[in-house]
Amino acid sequence: MRIVLAEDDRHLGEGLSMGLRELGHTVDWLVDGSATEQALLSENIDALILDLGLPTQDGLHVLKNLRSRGNNLPVLVLTARDTLDDRIQGLDLGADDYVVKPFDLLEVDARLRAICRRREGRAAPLIEYAGITMDPASRSLQKDGVEVILGANEFSILETLISHPGRIMSRQALEESLYGWDEGVESNAIEVYIHHLRKKLGKTLIKTVRGVGYMIPKQSQSD
Asked: Where does the OmpR/PhoB-type domain start and stop, copy by copy (predicted)?
C-alpha cells in the first residue's frame, strides 16, 4: 500500500513511517499541510494518514480541499484533538476513520486496510481471485489451498493488480506503489517481479498490455 503520512511531530512521524514500512507499506512522510496538498495531486496513492495540527495549512483544510476536488482517497485522521467536536468535524469533512493519539501501530494498520477495503467495495478482509487467496494482514497467499511464498515487493505488486481487476497499471504506477520519492528504482525491477509472479502463480494470471503496462483481467460470472 502506498501511503502519504502527514505528521509534523518528528518523533511520531519517524516511528510511524518506520513501523508501517516494516509492515510492508510504502510511506512518504510530510510535515506540513502545503506539501501534503501537492503530494495528493498524485494518482498513485492508496491512503492518507492526516494529522489535524499541521503547520502552513491545517489538516482539516487539507481534507476539505481534497474532497472538494472529488478525490475519494481513503483518509485516516490521526490527532491529539480528542474532543467530540473535532471528531465530528473531521468525519463531516470526509474522513473515513479517526484515531486519537496515543495509538497502537497495528490498530492504525488494521484501520487503513479497513477503509481501503470499503473504498474498493470489499467487505471481506481476504482478496480472492481464480483460486488465489491473499491475506493483506499477514501478507500470506494460497493458490488452490497451497501456500505460495512471495517476496515483499512481489506481494505488493500482486495486491495492487488484483485489487483492481481489469485496470491497466503502468510500470511507473507499479514502481510508485513500491518505492518512496527518495528511493532509487532499478530500470527493470518491475519486469523482474512480474516474471517471478508468473513463475509462481502461472503465466496467464498477469497480462502484458504492450506499450501500456500490466493487468489482471476481471473474472467472468462463471469463474
From this structure: 124-218
